[in-house]
Specification:
This protein is an alpha/beta fold and about 325 residues long. It has one domain: 3-Layer(aba) Sandwich (Aminopeptidase), CATH 3.40.630.10. It contains eleven helices and eight strands. Strand 6, helix 8 and strand 7 form a beta-alpha-beta unit. Helix 4 packs across helix 5. The protein is globular. The structure holds zinc ion (ZN). Zinc ion binds next to loops.
Amino acid sequence: MLSAMFRLKTALIFIIPAALIILSAVSCGDNTGSLSDYGNPPEVEKCFCNPDGVEVYLESIAESYPEITNLRESGTTADGRKIYTLELSDNPGIAENEPAVFIGGAVHGHEQASAGVSLHLIEYLVNAYPDSDDAADIIENIKLHVMPVLNPDGLDSGIRYNSNGVDLNRNFGFHWSEEEINNGDEAFDQPESAAVRDDFLAQDYSSGLILHTASSQNGIGIYGPWDAIPTDDVDFNIDNYAMIESIGENYSDTLTASAGYPYNPYFHYEEGADWYILYGSVNDWALGVTGAVCYSVELYGKQNYSTYDADLLDKIWNVHKKSIIDFIRSRPEW
Ligand SMILES: [Zn+2]
């Protein structure tokens, strides 16, 4: 019988001294330029963003907003690129008794919009803080960690896999299976998946979103654990599944309609393996080993973007913005 380890998180009481709020209100840097200035260098036209552009952008954010951000290197890819994580917090880089939430993009390198939405989230929060209530709540009461590109080599090449031909979302060490394809010789034998593993173990995340884009409109939605075991299987066993389901459904119900996003009616919550079974996913390992409840969000029904389309990326972000913000703020107690 497979079982998940869950920890009962104690309720947290957040007391923010007024003086801190006032201090942070006057100490933030000026706004940086727009995403398109950084995420899409002119020489790279095929992607929403590329790893070099992401690096320049994240460094500019960390430099402009040192009071509320901390940029760290979480690992190095097979081709030697850095994997970056930006923490957003009023005490960045310092341990606090707050829920830690993970947002990750581009585990599949040909799903470029997932990296772009991660960067939009960062840009929104640093610009909205401290004036907007949602940004203030996230920055002051939650540790948010955004890894915009889990697979920089794949993003650079516009391919699903890392440069060793491995699907990183099949390479994690819980429900890993030799029956799977492109899964590596063994779990965590790829530097990118090992980097994500080590980051999860270091940060003790309570929940997370792994952002993707689907190959067609039929695949868009939010998918919860397990990815390897369908709900009607006798081994399907998740404590608190009703809460996991309700958080996923809330994400779906909170999507904001947009004229430029034609697929809203298809978006739904579903348990991952009820869509299709896969082994060695980030989500199954996160829940099964660390207790973090992570969902895959298929943001949009397209991959392999042949041209950069800032307007489309803006629309995808605006459709998902409230859902992502509400998810981060939901503070589930597993
Ligand atoms: Zn994907």
